[in-house]
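Sequence and structure are no longer studied apart. To make this concrete, we show below a single chain and its fold as tokens.
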Amino acid sequence: MHHAWLLQGEAGIGKATVAFAMARHILGAGQDGQAVARQIAGGGHPGLLHLARPPVERGTGFRTQITVDEIRRLTHFFQTTAGLGWRIAIIDPADDMNRSAANALLKMLEEPPARSLFLITNHRPGRILPTIRSRCRVLRFAELTPDEIARQLAEDVPDSTQDARQAAAASAGGSLRTALQHLMSGGLEVSETTRRLVAMPAPDWTAIMALGDAVTLKGREAAYTLMAQAAFRAVADEAQALAMAGDLVRAERLAAFWQAEDARWREAEAFNLDRKQVLLTFFNGLAEARADSAAFH
């Protein structure tokens, strides 16, 4: 088996679920499968290390990045489990690694320990080093269809209405997790408002300020994340539509804007910058990108 697998696809479509299922299958071979599954579910299996953003030292929540210190835990993990069979590391997701962490992981992938397996999830291909990607077998996950999501929502949230499930599924971008957030936390209104504001030819600053106020309140972190996802997806959809229509100049300008904003939002999260200002800068930059494209034409 190849030592490193990159599981790529939208957030919330089951990549981590598959990674843990693979770990249960491999670590449970020749063992009591149920006992192994319980160990993995409880985070206590000696042959599995799950790396994600660590919790903050004080208060609740998680840090904004997977740091190099987290990746260095892999060295200790592989050293102390050398007498076991397969040792599996799940990095979930690689998108959250900072540059130092990514470089440290790359060194391990270049010289992997014996009987080691790296299962790496990745939401956006542009957020992972090409050198890491080149050392992995890539398993791409297709987006779930609205019908597939709606059927699963009927099982997960049986007291919801069919109309609500269909609306949540249609706006989820192929992600079951996003659909659940839309259905259960008022996220659908946030996403629809965001997409409507992005679609406007000129910024409606009053509505944008109101959206910023709503999603940056304490305890509204999930709403802020949904807003960001909806904004970036709306820009990506617009760029794709322009490219399909043959308007490559405007498509390229929007794609460049998307990439620059993606990097800026990640930096803002890493340094805990003012989220409302980040949102305002996003819409201002979008207006400028569209104006530049129009002027070029």
